[in-house]
Amino acid sequence: LCDFLRHDLGATGVHVGCEHGVCGACTVLVDGVAMRSCLMLAVQGHERRIETVESLADDDTLSDLQQAFRRHHALQCGFCSAGILMSCVDFLERVPNPDETQVRDMLSGHLCRCTGYTGIVQAVLEVAAQRQTN
């Protein structure tokens, strides 16, 4: 699925890292659930709602989560960021008011060589808090 999304549909935010479902760079939402697209065949996505990082922004306006990633310098080199963002979207839907331990546990499914995850954790916690007050 990741190759189809990236090469045939042009969703270049889908990155292929390990091709074994370990690194998380290829994470997309399938019917609202974070999944590793390198572990799915493209045909398994037929008639399912598949969202990539490209779907998060509304025209030229970044989502609240993307804006928080930028504010907290959570992007680093950017290779793993798209997959992490997609996992965070799913996570915040399921756990709207997480604590730091829960966020770090969710992030443990992603491998990133550029960051200690602190900025990502801060961004997720900020968005969760903002959404609770709205």
SSE diagram, text form:
Blueprint: H1 2-8, E1 27-30, E2 33-36, E3 50-51, H2 64-71, H3 81-94, H4 100-107, H5 118-133
Antiparallel strand pairs: 1-2, 1-3
Helix pairs in contact: 2-5, 4-5
Q: What would your notes on this structure say?
A:
- The protein is mainly α and 134 residues long.
- Helices cover 40% and strands 7% of the residues.
- The chain is built from 5 helices and 3 strands.
- The chain has a 3-stranded antiparallel β-sheet, covered by helices on one side.
- A hairpin with a 2-residue loop joins strand 1 and strand 2.
- Helix 2 (64-71) packs across helix 5 and helix 4 (100-107) crosses helix 5.
- It is globular, with a radius of gyration of 14 Å.
Outline:
The chain is mainly α. Helices cover 40% and strands 7% of the residues. The protein has helices at 2-8, 64-71, 81-94, 100-107, 118-133; strands at 27-30, 33-36, 50-51.
List keywords for this structure.
134 residues, mainly alpha, 5 helices, 3 strands, globular
Structural class: mainly alpha
Look at the structure and give the mean pLDDT.
95
Strand elements, count: 3
Low-confidence residue ranges = none
H/I helix tally: 5
- What percent strand? 5-15%
